[in-house]
Specification:
Blueprint: H1 5-21, H2 28-53, H3 61-84, H4 91-120, H5 125-145, E1 155-156, H6 164-182, H7 185-195, H8 197-202, H9 207-233, E2 235-236, H10 243-256, H11 261-277, H12 285-299
Antiparallel strand pairs: 1-2
Helix pairs in contact: 1-6, 2-6, 2-9, 2-10, 2-11, 3-4, 3-5, 3-9, 4-9, 6-9, 7-9, 10-11
């Protein structure tokens, strides 16, 4: 683990504050792309805790993201008019409300992760993947049929609270928490569960508990990413959190190298930038995108950025 991770976190927060200070001079398009990269990094790093370090295979990460997006948007849309009126509040007041909304979304996603994890994480492999896939679809269909949350049309008019500072700050916090957790005693339990679950249970480790902890923490940060996404796009629909979104996040983890935080971050950056680079050939963009993914996985099945220093070892 890097020395003095708390200082690294503080330095990252100062960088986020500095970028926010000069954000008005940044091209809005580049700023939007940078925010999109940050949200995808949070999603990929949090899923890597489950799929990479703990050795499970979850296909429901977009479901947790949707829970965080809808709940945080509902909190801010309900409280903002009542607290600030039509004129809005100060930057500090709105920032405080946004933080409360994000935490509400993250905690609700963590609760959903606990409810799904307790019964399902006793399963392994394909069975777990099917259960998490089913959960993601249940959440999507539920939001699609709840009229108070916009139904199939989704939620519109979400306050524009997401800024580059919030995104970079939570990227730093996500990486900090996952890195410290993996290199802690609990992290050794994650890695033991990943390497040989039967052997880990034979020496007295409660592997189900470790899997649930990883699942809940991963879901929490997915909910945070969903909250940032909703307050960035200003409108969310159930179709934005379907099976395709979960697969997109899984691809980032696999391409970066399972259990490799540095590689997963680089993969998230690459796969966010790639569609933008291919935008001039929009009609062939998804074909080229898919073809490049196939080539990358055939040439580097262990992960494109599978560096040894990025992986924790017992």
């Amino acid at each position: 683990m890097p020395p003095k991770p708390h200082l690294a976190l503080l330095a990252a927060l100062l960088v986020a504050f500095g970028v926010q200070h000069f954000s008005d001079s940044i091209n809005p398009y580049y700023l939007d792309v940078l925010i999109g990269i940050g949200i995808n990094v949070i999603l990929a790093v949090s899923l890597n805790l489950v799929n990479g370090y703990t050795g499970q295979f979850s296909l429901g990460h977009a479901g947790f993201m949707s829970v965080g997006a809808y709940l945080s948007a509902a909190v801010s849309m309900y409280l903002a008019p009542r607290l600030f009126g039509e004129d809005g509040g100060t930057a500090l007041q709105e920032g405080g409300l946004f933080l409360v909304a994000l935490l509400a979304g993250g905690l609700s996603a963590a609760l959903a992760g606990l409810l799904v994890g307790v019964p399902s994480l006793r399963l392994k492999g394909d069975y777990l993947a099917l259960v998490t896939l089913g959960f993601g679809e249940i959440i999507r269909v539920t939001f699609q049929n709840v009229e108070s949350l916009g139904g199939a049309l989704g939620l519109n008019g979400i306050p524009a609270y997401t800024s580059i500072f919030w995104v970079l700050a939570f990227v730093a916090l996500t990486v900090f928490v996952v890195t410290c957790l993996v290199h802690s005693t609990y992290g050794r339990g994650f890695l033991a569960t990943h390497d040989d679950e039967i052997a880990a249970e034979a020496v007295g480790l409660n592997t189900t508990r470790y899997k649930i902890v990883a699942f809940v923490i991963g879901a929490f940060f997915a909910g945070i990413a969903g909250g940032l996404y909703g307050h960035f796009k200003l409108t969310i629909t159930p179709t934005g959190f379907d099976f395709t979104k979960s697969i997109e996040i899984v691809v980032m983890v696999i391409l970066g190298g399972m259990g490799n935080t540095v590689g997963v971050i680089l993969a998230a950056i690459l796969l966010t930038l790639l569609p933008e680079v291919l935008r001039p050939v929009a009609e062939y963009r998804m074909v080229l995108y898919s073809f490049l993914l196939i080539v990358l996985m055939l040439s580097r099945p262990q992960g494109l950025f599978n560096f040894k220093f990025g992986k924790a070892r017992v």
